[in-house]
Structures are given as structure tokens and as C-alpha cells.
């Protein structure tokens, strides 16, 4: 199975900050990497698919990059509604898998 | 626009089974790939398995092999996830999700809380 490792596990930041979250795969997954945002009590929401494609309706301050084993999610200017938990997910293998999550908190 | 509506919360005894449903609307059910993902309290997301209704083929995460069964009823556009031999560690919110571009999950059900307690 492909293991996905996110860093950091938690992050404190302020409104307006630029934030980067990293996701590393245990083997190459090409660009089959997706990012989700989850708020308490809600289902995850797709932000980025195929490593760098912005899902329809998602603000352009979210961006993704990477290929192979190393990927990043960047929020260019944090807004109050962005404080949430973020997950990466690989869809390269038949058995997909998620990272452990990154909790983004207000500083 | 696909909508996924899941069945209600369940309380189960250890050793029993639970079956959660996920009814889809707004698209072509048979063309979907529907996955089940669970989230234990305060924990991350865990993929359990998927089904392709048009083929009737399911595959499962190794961790759940032998304990989970995912089925689909094309006549009612409903997918099901049955988990057997329940233990306390199976207490979680269970989500169904439809795979879209490049295997990403662009539509999710609202989640079903399954509590396993004696």
C-alpha cells in the first residue's frame, strides 16, 4: 500500500498569511494527488485534483503543485473561512489512501 | 449535480453487523465509482473500498478484506456498505463518495455515525 505523509500535522497562522502544506508519497504516484478541506462535522470538500487543477468553485488563493512523490498545497492569503483540516489523497493505486491531515488553526 | 443521501445513525453491539446505504441522484448511477471512507472520532480519513455499479465489481482495502461488503442496486441508485464483526474501534462516521476526475472524490454523502458499544 502507498503511504501518504503530510507535514506539518498542525499549523498556526494569521489571516493574510501565505501557508504551505506538504504531502509525500511512499512511492511515485505521478500526478494522482488530490487535496481536501474538512471543517468540523462536515464531509470533506475537494479543493485540488490531479496535483494542480483547481476544482470548480474553489477560490484561486488555493493552489497545488508537485509530481512523483512530493506535493504541496499553498494558500496564498489566508481567509477566516480557511481554518480547517486539510488532507491529501493519492488516487494512483487501486487502493487509494489519505494523509493523516494538517490542522490549520488561527494564531 | 450529484447528490448522495445516506441512512441514519446506528448503534450496534460488538460482534454484530451494520449496513449503511447511500442513495444517489442527479446523475447516471451506473457510470459512477462509489467509495466508502470512514473517520473515527478525532481521527483522519480512511478509505475502505469501492464499487463500480455498471460492472458490479468491488474492491476493498486490505485492512477490511473479509469484513466489509460493498454492493449496489442499480434499480434504486443506492450503494450499500456492510461491515461485520463490529468492535469498538469501528465507531466512526462513514461516508460514501463518488469518484470524479483523476480519482478524486468530488461528491460526498453527509456521513453516517455508527457507534459500537455494549
| Estimated radius of gyration of chain A | 13 Å
- Strand segment tally of chain A: 11
Low-confidence stretches of chain A: none
The major pleated sheet of chain A works out as: 7 strands, mixed
What's the overall geometry of chain A? globular
Number of strands of chain B: 11
**Proportion of beta-strand residues of chain A:** over 45%
Oligomerization status of the protein chains:
heterodimer
Largest sheet of chain B: 7 strands, mixed
Fraction of residues in helix of chain A: under 10%
**% residues in beta strands of chain B:** over 45%
Count of alpha and pi helical runs of chain A: 0
Compressed to H and E, one letter per element, the order of chain B equals EEEEEEEEEEE
Mean pLDDT of chain A: 97
User: What average pLDDT do the residues of chain B reach?
Assistant: 96
Structural class based on helices, strands and sheet pairing of chain A: mainly beta
How far apart the termini of chain A lie comes to 36 Å
| H/E series of chain A | EEEEEEEEEEE
Could you characterize the architecture of this molecule?
The complex is a heterodimer of chains A (107) and B (118). With 107 residues, chain A is mainly β. Chain A has no helices and 11 strands. Chain A has strands at 4-7, 10-13, 19-25, 33-38, 45-49, 53-54, 62-67, 70-75, 85-90, 97-98, 102-106. In chain A, the strands form 2 sheets. In chain A, strands 2, 4, 5, 6, 9, 10 and 11 form a 7-stranded mixed β-sheet that branches. Chain A has a 4-stranded antiparallel β-sheet with strand order 1-3-8-7, with no helix packed on it. In chain A, strand 9 (85-90) and strand 10 form a beta hairpin. The mean pLDDT of chain A is 97. The mean pLDDT of chain B is 96. In chain B, 0% of the residues lie in helices and 53% in strands. In chain B, the strands form 2 sheets. In chain B, strands 2, 4, 5, 6, 9, 10 and 11 form a 7-stranded mixed β-sheet that branches. A 4-stranded antiparallel β-sheet of chain B has the order 1-3-8-7, with no helix packed on it. Chain B is globular, with a radius of gyration of 13 Å. Chain B starts with a strand and ends with a strand. In chain B, strand 4 (34-39) and strand 5 (45-52) form a beta hairpin. Chain B has 118 residues and is an all-beta fold. The interface between A and B is medium-sized, with 26 and 23 residues.
Amino acid at each position: 500500500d502507498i503511504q501518504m505523509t503530510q507535514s506539518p500535522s498542525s499549523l498556526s497562522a494569521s489571516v493574510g498569511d501565505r501557508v504551505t502544506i506538504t504531502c509525500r508519497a511512499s512511492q511515485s504516484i505521478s500526478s494522482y494527488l488530490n487535496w481536501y478541506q474538512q471543517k468540523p462535522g462536515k464531509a470533506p470538500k475537494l479543493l485540488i485534483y490531479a496535483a494542480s487543477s483547481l476544482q470548480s468553485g474553489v477560490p484561486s488563493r488555493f493552489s497545488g503543485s508537485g509530481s512523483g512523490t512530493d506535493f504541496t498545497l499553498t494558500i496564498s492569503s489566508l481567509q477566516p473561512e480557511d481554518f480547517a483540516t486539510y488532507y491529501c489523497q493519492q488516487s494512483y493505486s487501486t487502493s487509494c489512501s489519505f494523509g493523516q491531515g494538517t490542522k490549520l488553526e488561527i494564531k | 449535480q450529484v447528490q448522495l443521501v445516506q441512512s441514519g445513525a446506528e448503534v450496534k453491539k460488538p460482534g454484530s453487523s451494520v449496513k449503511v446505504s447511500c442513495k444517489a441522484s442527479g446523475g447516471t448511477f451506473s457510470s459512477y465509482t462509489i467509495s466508502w471512507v470512514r473517520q473515527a472520532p478525532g481521527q483522519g480519513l480512511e478509505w475502505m473500498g469501492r464499487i463500480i455499479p455498471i460492472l458490479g465489481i468491488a474492491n476493498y482495502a486490505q485492512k477490511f478484506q473479509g469484513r466489509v461488503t460493498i454492493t449496489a442496486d442499480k434499480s434504486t441508485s443506492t450503494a450499500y456498505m456492510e461491515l461485520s464483526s463490529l468492535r469498538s474501534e469501528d465507531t466512526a462516521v462513514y461516508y460514501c463518495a463518488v469518484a470524479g476526475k483523476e480519482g478524486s472524490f468530488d461528491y460526498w454523502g453527509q456521513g453516517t455515525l455508527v457507534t459500537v458499544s455494549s
